[in-house]
């Protein structure tokens, strides 16, 4: 999913990551999450902000809190892991925060891959877990490739040629260890943009570029953010994107006994109903095929070839998947995470509701 800076509204002072983590943990603690779980979720949410997935970080906090307060998320879960075979497992999230479920699933996949070369772990009874790249990146420090997908927490796309919203933005992320230039991390929605990006444009009252959404009844392009609720997100690559979304639904949802299609609960509109969100993560030990240093050296060589190639007119530089992620994280870790005034106002209101200090207090 492409990173579009949240700071496109009125500029607000950047917030240090530690301040954001503390604020999120306090907010989640105020609605019942145990301290350790609140910190874990807060750290993963702020990791989204640090790496540029702004629509999946602290931006989501008011929605998460509303869902917890309504009883739609279990704040005292018993997350369990069922090792179904040598290289597979199924995680039951017990309706926990999705971040907690997927961190456990990623850890399990890494452990299994260390034992057997490959680990495929599915998850059900989960919830929205933030950006896909966070989990695909977790196997990388262990010398492994990570592949992650999930059934999106609402349906905003139709099968190609249809008008019934039966598919989600179902993301796909692949993380590959690289050489000195860093890892390659692809994180994409199967729609042209994620629905979180649409929500951000609605919050900031910014026009939607043509080609993102069309009206469900007329098929006409939607550019007015006020009309977003009447729209369908368009798949990336036309029929190919909707086909990929369907297949990922089957792998992340049906295979794990999780919801897809008409069974998906729109967590943007319904805070009470259990979503049974499904995910999967695969960890692959590179050393079972080729020595890690040889693999990384080859990746580095081909990255250099791609970067040094000639560009078409209108292209300044060639960008590879995840290339700006490391630099953006370094920059934001030093200078802070930019937040627009509109979001800060929502977070201040949330702090008042929960009787916790506002950001920057």
Rg, rounded, reads 20 Å
Query: What order do the helices and strands follow?
Result: HHHEEHEHEEEHEEEHEHHH
Mean pLDDT figure: 93
Major β-sheet strand ordering: 1-2-3-10-4-5-6
Instruction: Give the N-to-C terminal Cα separation.
Output: 33 Å
Q: Uncertain regions: pLDDT < 50 for 5+ in a row?
A: 1-11
The biggest sheet, with number of strands, parallel, antiparallel or mixed sense and barrel status, is: 7 strands, mixed
Structural class: alpha+beta
Strand content: 5-15%
Number of strands: 10
Count of helical stretches: 10
Helicity level, as a percent range? 25-40%
What spatial form do the alpha-carbon principal axes imply? globular
Structure description:
Strand 5 and strand 6 (184-188) form a beta hairpin. The chain is 36% helix and 15% strand. Mean pLDDT is 93; it is low at 1-11. Helix 1 crosses helix 2. The strands form 2 sheets. Strands 1-2-3-10-4-5-6 form a 7-stranded mixed beta sheet. It has 10 helices and 10 strands. The radius of gyration is 20 Å and the shape is globular. The chain has 361 residues and is α+β, with helices and mostly antiparallel strands.
